[in-house]
Amino acid sequence: KPEYRGTFELSIRSRSRPFYVAYGIKESLRTIRDLRFSREDIDYLRTLDLFCPDFLKYLKNFSFSGDVWAIEEPEIVFAEEPIVRVTGTLMEAQILESILLNIINLHTTLTTKALRIVLSAAGRSIYDFSLRRAQGEDAGIAASACSYVAGCAGTANVIAGMKYGIPVVGTMAHSFIQSFPDEIGSFRAFAEVFPDKTILLIDTYSTDKGLEHAVTVAKELKKIRHSLKGVRIDSGDLVQEARTARAVLDMNGFVDTQVIVSGNLDEYAIQELTLAHAPIDGFGVGTHMGTSSDMPYCDVIYKLAEIETPCGTVKPVMKLSPGKTTMPYRKQVYRKVQKGMVHEDIICREGEKCGGRPLLCQAIDAGALKVDVTDNL
To answer: Which residues have a Cβ under 8 Å from the Cβ of 158 and sit 6 or more positions away?
Structure first.
């Protein structure tokens, strides 16, 4: 029988960030395409004694039959702009709500944070060290993927490297060094296994002594026609420590040996280091990037914008709650670019001609996927 249809729009309500990176769109589209309710799912729902038999029968045969318009990821977006627009029966469109909010919240939050960190490094390399502090395995893998999309040079998460083809990077652990009778013995053992990929962690005991041992190992590697790739400093006054390391390495002829720093870094700490002109080649960033510590979520919302009655009449819908007002009707975002820079975005009612490039493109048409959703980081 004829059903009411609705259009819902997903956007970010908060202006806490000056911009966001919309990501998670492809995963959302794959999830919509594949969404089904198994016999086990329906049997469980029946045990809750909440749903009528007709609804459970509806779920048994469920597949999304509506339309989805979405921004092509990854894309810079701003608060209150529609990122995804879903049109379908009210039932099926509402079923997608929590799925879309969950996926796009996580990926947009992490990609936005990672890009902020990448930009703060002013061209220096950022490496993802976030797995240990991420909220579970799935979030850890997502953090690696999001950081790579945002411009990170590699990840210490080997599973993410295998799954997405992200360059896998790493140095050595303090515990590895501590397991040897002396520091230089651990350095020599590591260099023997990785003669051209050795980055020595020099701050376990004394950074000055660690640097001295690193130079010794670098000289030993040079004698056998290999080279020390870098040293890593994980604590202390990173500006001064980096300057000392760079000076000592250069004085000994190791001008190509990199200085990498890590240890509770975020975009603000990295910006201070770059503004101080610290001679740092790369940053290993973990907790703050992988959890987006200062803003661990985007205030994503999924709100009804219009309803189409069974007879075809379209009725606008808006929310008037204080601080949570929404705009009615389905919308499009037009982006105007001047000299290669975003000049302005204009939110228009669908069908209006506002000039510029439309950001929302049709991704699903009557349940059929219209775009490539293959992961290609």
So the answer is: 168
